Amino acid sequence: MTTTIIRNARAFSLPKLLLEGRAFLALLLVIVVFSSLTPNYLTVANLLTMASHVAIYAILGLGMLVVILNGGIDLSVGSTLGFSAVIAGFLLSGVPLTLFGVVLYPSVPVTVFLACGVGALAGLVNGILIARFKVAPFVATLGMLYVVRGLALLMTNGLTINDLGGDAERGNTGFDWLGFNRILGIPVGVVIMAVLALVLGFVLGRTRFGRWLYASGGNERAAELSGVPVRSVKVRVYVISGVCAAIAGLILASTLTSAGPTAGQSYELTAIATVVIGGAALTGGRGTVRGTLLGAFVIGFLSDGLVIVGVSAYWQMVFMGAVIVVAVLLNTLQYGRRRRTNSVSPQPPASPSGQDSATRSVSNP
User: Fold this and answer.
1) Is 3 exposed, middle or buried, given 0-12, 13-18 or 19+ CB atoms closer than 10 A?
2) What is the SS3 assignment for 7?
3) What's the average model confidence in pLDDT over 121-136?
4) CB–CB of 254/180 below 8 Å?
5) Residue 285 carries which DSSP code?
6) Could you give phi then psi for residue 321, rounded to 5 degrees?
7) Tens digit of pLDDT for each residue in 230-265?
8) Rounded to an integer, what distance in angstroms lies between the CA atom of residue 35 and that of residue 348?
């Protein structure tokens, strides 16, 4: 009886509550501070504008989340974002078929599909290098960062592709729908973010792939011995990350009605920050969609708030770096505390087969 009371007291301790709810508390703090500094911060128009910016960070962050849950990292998402946007701009501007003497203008759905395919291909190459050839995730994705950025620069000669609105006579209008249209008053980018978050939340929480992902990220060797297809999971998470980067690039290009080869620079760091602020462990196996969304809102609302109050771009980088460092420190405190708690907790006896029920549930969901 006494032991139960002590455990309940620990479970509902205030420091633990503040630590695990830090992303939500940080978002509230950002809103309160900037609302007091500028009266226009909490207007409906400004909130919708900030939400549109958050959508790009969140979509990138959701892709990064599955990679980090697997114990990896993807440094190529920013470059993949920019390259996918350039692919869309290149297609919408017309693809010359010199052999036939014609210029092909793909429709917007075809353009979106091909741009997402490019993102998936970049992720597939990353996944194969990491899972099949055992290249370190940092090295493989860093190499892909340079490859796709270089391809974007080659395709455009370093110039920005402008006027992506299309031409009605060519049948390729409507690309700006992603960036400017609204559904029930909500920007399309925000709707896409919400749909992706719901789908990914279901996949992580309700499917076999989600259980495999958490298991392989927590302990890859144990998961492999339990029957988890570790290589397949690893390849899939990088493909998902590449597709999310492509979607974010399409939304950004549609919003700007232009595609620049340098778009998305340093966005890979923003994506990592989004996931870390949301409470995910960089070592893998821990993290949630909800936390990543909160992290994206913290990043987006903080960035826009600093711009509104007139803080210089240099100081913005300082603030963002400080936020990331604090988030990592808090993650270390949280998961270090859990490890200490688990180390002093009595362990259940091992089953006769040598595997606990949780391990068996991974291999036999």
Assistant:
1) exposed
2) helix
3) 98
4) yes
5) S
6) -65, -40
7) 999 999 999 999 999 999 999 999 999 999 999 999
8) 51
The pLDDT score that the predictor gives to residue 354 is 42
User: Does the pLDDT at position 292 exceed 50?
Assistant: yes
For the segment 99-112, the average pLDDT, to the nearest whole number, is 88
- Give the C-alpha separation, 356 to 346, whole Å: 15
Give CA torsion, residues 314, 279, 264, 256, to 10 deg.
-90
Alpha carbons 358 and 339: distance in angstroms, whole number: 18
Contacts of 55 (CB under 8 A, 6+ apart): 187, 189, 190, 192, 193, 251
Q: How would you classify residue 340: left for phi > 0, otherwise alpha for psi between -120 and 50, otherwise beta?
A: alpha
Q: What is the DSSP letter of 354?
A: S
pLDDT tens string 58-96: 999 999 999 999 999 999 999 999 999 999 999 999 888
In the chain, which ranges are continuous DSSP H helix?
A: 2-11, 14-20, 22-37, 44-69, 77-92, 108-131, 137-156, 177-180, 188-206, 208-218, 220-225, 230-256, 267-277, 289-308, 313-344, 357-363
Q: CA 73 to CA 70: how far, in whole Å?
A: 9
φ and ψ of 182, to 5 deg: -135, 150
Give SS3 for 263: coil
Question: Residue 357's pLDDT is what?
Answer: 41
In single-letter form, the type of residue at position 360 comes to R
Closest to 268 (Cα-Cα) out of 19, 35, 60: 60
Give per-residue pLDDT as tens, 326-336.
888 888 887 76
Structural domain spans, the chain? 46-266+283-288
- What does the alpha-carbon distance between residue 156 and residue 162 come to, in Å, rounded to a whole number? 11
Closest by Cα among 89, 30, 19 to 249: 89
